[in-house]
Amino acid sequence: MPAMSAAFSKIASLLLEDPSLPLQLSITELAQRAGTSPATVSRFCRALGYAGYPTLRVRAAAEQGRTSARESWEADIGRAFRPDDPPEQVVRTLLNAHSAALSTTAEGVDTALVARVAAAIAGSPHVDIYGIEGSATIARELQARLYRIGVNAHAWGEAHAGLTSAALLEEGTVAIAFSNTGRTDEVIEMLSLAKSSGAYAVAVTSVPTSPLASLADDHLVASAPGEYLQPDDLSAKHAQMFLIDLLYLLVAQLDFPRTSSLLAASAAAVAPHRRPPRFGRAVAPEKGPR
Known about the structure:
single chain; alpha/beta; Arc Repressor Mutant, subunit A; Rossmann fold; 2 domains; 5-stranded parallel β-sheet; 5 strands; 58% helix; elongated
């Protein structure tokens, strides 16, 4: 800003440091902060090509809106995707993210650890499963699978109900907590209480150093790409789903005859509510002579 007067340079410096100032300050307040007069601020605006301070404020609001939109996009959708990406690019990026989450999770599985968790679940008289919001869906999925093969499992997606159950646990029970980040306070609180009640505490997160993972007796890692880890990221959920399917299958293997019997019983119970499959296209009967 060497070509500007000292007063203009001071105003320009303030606006460069904080472009939102015109939205926060009146022309008099901005002039006072710059140590000059409102008339000088008006001349500064005209020197930049604006009709006056109101026009500068409109431009500042538009720029702020564009910046907020970009920040919101990256926060809610992620840096891996851009607003102007063609559909073909979105498909490729999305597939890569989901594939990376599954393959990284599978490659990092500690089979001895997962087998130990499965054995604890199979031998437990009571299994609590905790998760809030998106992770609550995963908790319910695991509970449904385990319950169908005879495990007394309960999913809790609300802190008060989960804490009540956690307080009633004891030695020999199992508590499993889901949180992508491992920093969800309600989930940490539920697993902490379950552990202090005597339960074997297991955390499933994407961050091995997170508070939830540090609290647990054992930790399973559900990996997700860092540039695409959002609160409701499906690639993170798919990694968690991979782990719960693995746990379910390992638990089912431990007592195969009983598992087979229970699965057959539940299948028979719901069979009447399913329509039979249709093979080929239905063909209308030929009309004969009347």
